[in-house]
Amino acid sequence: MSGKQSSRIRTLLVVLTLSLSGITFAAEIPPLTHKLTALNPPINAPSLRLKNMDDEIVDIKDLKGKVVVVNFWATWCPPCRREMGSLERLHLATKDKNVVILAVNIGEDVDTVFSFMGQVDPSPSFPILFDLEAYSMKQWKVHGLPTTYIVNPEGKIVYRAIGGREFDHPDIQKTVINLGN
Known about the structure:
Distance between the termini: 49 Å
Mean pLDDT: 89
CATH superfamily: Glutaredoxin
Order of helices and strands: HEEEEHEHEHEEH
Helix content: 25-40%
CATH architecture: 3-Layer(aba) Sandwich
Number of strands: 8
CATH class: Alpha Beta
Low-confidence stretches: 16-26
CATH topology: Glutaredoxin
Structural class: alpha+beta
């Protein structure tokens, strides 16, 4: 096994271990919050080029000029599951306001994710991207799931959210919409 493969496997094992320990204490999961952490100064968004559920390539560089909400998640992650409906409500409230939501699934196949989507209310209509090898986690410096970044129209990460959020909260909606104006 190469060093790269070994590193990827270790990363996936750490994420899985952290997530499984979260499942054990599911009753103790804190409520979702609506706070975002501003990055000051903003930093350049790393590259992100992955396939979606239709096997089409989505590249963040093609979205320059738009606000992009990049959410890293997995179906086995309780807070990820809890926030998915609010991401769809944010998408519905902002899709005509120069905002794109991208949900990057880490380490799962299309069948697993598709099955989960039928359980989400409302079911996501924004792009779901697949990173089977978790390459993007290292590039984006994701240390746990869920982690979400908000990228301004100039391609800079301006906000970060580590842990579950209520993305349809009026404060988050206002922040995201204002970035696109």
